[in-house]
Write a structure and sequence with these properties.
Blueprint: E1 2-4, E2 7-10, E3 20-24, H1 29-40, E4 44-49, E5 68-71, H2 77-83, E6 87-92, H3 106-126, E7 132-138, E8 146-149, E9 153-155, H4 162-166, E10 182-184, H5 197-216, E11 219-225, E12 227-229, H6 242-251, E13 257-258, E14 265-266, E15 268-270, H7 271-283, E16 290-294, E17 300-301, H8 302-313, E18 321-322, H9 339-345, H10 353-362
Parallel strand pairs: 3-4, 3-6, 4-5, 6-7, 7-11, 11-16, 12-15, 13-18
Antiparallel strand pairs: 1-2, 2-5, 8-9, 8-10, 14-17
Helix pairs in contact: 1-7, 3-5, 6-8, 8-10
Amino acid sequence: MNTTSGVIRTAFGGVSWQNMILVTGGAGFIGSHVVDELVEEGHEVRVLDLLLDAAHAVIPDYLNPGAEFIQADVADRDAVSEALRGVDAVCHQAAMVGLGVAMGDITDYVRHNGLGTAVLLGGLAEAGFEGRMVLASSMVVYGEGAYRCKRHGPMTPEPRTREDLELGHFSPRCQVCSGDLEPIAIDESATLDPRNVYAATKVHQEHLCFAFARETGVAVTALRYHNVYGPRMPRDTPYAGVAAIFASALAAGEPPRVFEDGGQLRDFVHVRDVAHANVIALTQENPLTGAFNVASGDPRSVGEMANALADAAGPRAPRPVVTGEYRLGDVRHVFACAERAERELGFKVREDFYDGMAEFALAPLRVA
């Protein structure tokens, strides 16, 4: 390992500087799986990752030895300029994730996600980049999912009120008749409606990247991940999703605590499927510009997911407990229409929900 201009570089496997795919955030949960598949397919890969303390403090032992690793901040112009040398495709995974419910964290979210993306795009423009770019986006850009009132048709609900949530009324209401709304699959044409700080920065990333695409002609594909789970998921950090939180509880011999009534619908998608979607977008013959849901198209309730994990953990595992608790920044239902990704990207999930949950229940979670 050597340090140049504040950048820590480790060269693995004798990788050259030519014909590279750069993966920002490539030491992270999803990024590392993208790196693995790219290396397995014979691509030359460079990783740029800050190793943010909230996610991990050291180079993870799972980082693929076939990739070159640069430890640096994507918001560092000099580091980005160096990392982009010889690169003909970029997979931008680097981001600070989580709900962003504490306003004290707002500056960090904007810096890592908004400024980091802007610096990367500026570096690409300065380098005269003519390749393709894939952005890790998220279903959080939608806010609440799509809904329909039986009497008044399709409707975008207002944010749920604290008063309703306190009373245990978790379903969004029709703005006309105040009746409960029926959730339906959301597609990529839906109006973006971010409802927490993290979501706002993901929308910002998309807007910056698509503006860059219009100005430069570079193909930018935004992959809107739904609820990703699988090996290497971090525990006990802001990066831990609900699946990791439940798995951590089971590993500690404690019952998973399911908020609201457990009926929240989500689309759980395995990290290997998400990585595969990235590889398709990076390597298919004709690059696509636009946004795509990366999801199974098969919604499951949070309660069902918690029970699947408990079943896989064994007969002595504690059963999930439905608590009625809520978080004001959460949404009730959001699950995907996956048709566009299948039709245009040729992407379809390969991992079975129950098999994936069984694997995840027994997999060690990453400790920062």
